[in-house]
## 1
Amino acid sequence: MELSVVNPGPVNGPTLSGDLTVTSMDMFKQIMLEKMPMVP
């Protein structure tokens, strides 16, 4: 038996807690603050 798994990239959408310090939201925060040199 073989198992293949496809993991998604960043999951976009509102956070459940409203906390923007989580890792997945940090990328968007850096883009908005122009701290990321390029868009992934």
## 2
Amino acid sequence: MPQFVQFNLSDLTDMLGEDDVKSILSSFSCPMNKDVEDFIRNKAIEFSKRGFAKTHLVFWVSDDQTEKELVGYYTVAPKVIKVDKKAVSKSVGKRLRAQGINSHDDNEYIVPAPLIGQLGKNYADGNNCLISGNELLALAVEKVKLVQNEIGGRFVYLECEEKEKLLEFYQENGFKIFGKRLLDRDETGIDGEYLIQLFAIL
């Protein structure tokens, strides 16, 4: 089994200093998703400082512990989602209602659900081959579970471009489509005018 270790970006910055961490992040490459690459290189440290979203770096470690490579990262942020009642089955709706916040709109559920805001593998030097997308997503979901074990909650959500392979990937990992969101002005490097929203029950 592959061995992975994770570091909260804020903790790593405290340990190594911001300049050294920026040097590590500058080598991150994700040609398939420039938004993922731009975030980790230019925004992640500031987002962590301001508490908008916490980034977690994932490193592959060799069996003898002598080699360590940055293979990917993910971010988690506190959010609340609005789910149209027509978008889910009655059984899922009951679970959403049980965890939900009272809404003035009878046509939607409002539910606290951490956002997996960024998820990407590092393609520099072939490091993407050291971890699968399924493994990286599982690490992010497990992190959300650990947090919810302390504070409560049963849902997690994410957003992605409307691309068949991406949607298949997330749906195969238990996520369900519940809506779409128009892009903000500062969201660049993303195809289309909106993102597909998906959630999973943990």
## 3
Amino acid sequence: MLIRLRSCKARLSSTFFQHISSGQDLWDNKDSVKDQLIEDSRKFHLVQVLIRLQRMNVYFGDDDTDYNPQKLGFNARTESETVQQNPELKKLRKFRMPSGETEYFFDHIGFTGNYCGRIHFLPNKANKKCCIGYIGKHLKTKRF
């Protein structure tokens, strides 16, 4: 899902939260949210994901053009060199862009609940947007 930040602000405001009552609602409003959210009957992950998407919307829409994971918050980080250099683990982080091309989405933030989840994204701070490649369960690593 591509977040076009200036135009999305209204949809990711508190009114947007009021219209989301299930994972199905989020699915209907966003293009690439994974099945784990649809099955989240208690909305625990859904609320965490919405809060993180709202923060990403604000962060990528501000006037600073340099991407800084610490400023984004939620312990945003890039995958380790081990993951980036391991063909099997690297492949798990390759997702389709809106253009149809595929890219590696090594940057991510986490959420927890019934399972440990991740939002993998491709930052493009200079253009005030980021592309969300994956929202769902923690992808395999060498340790996890």
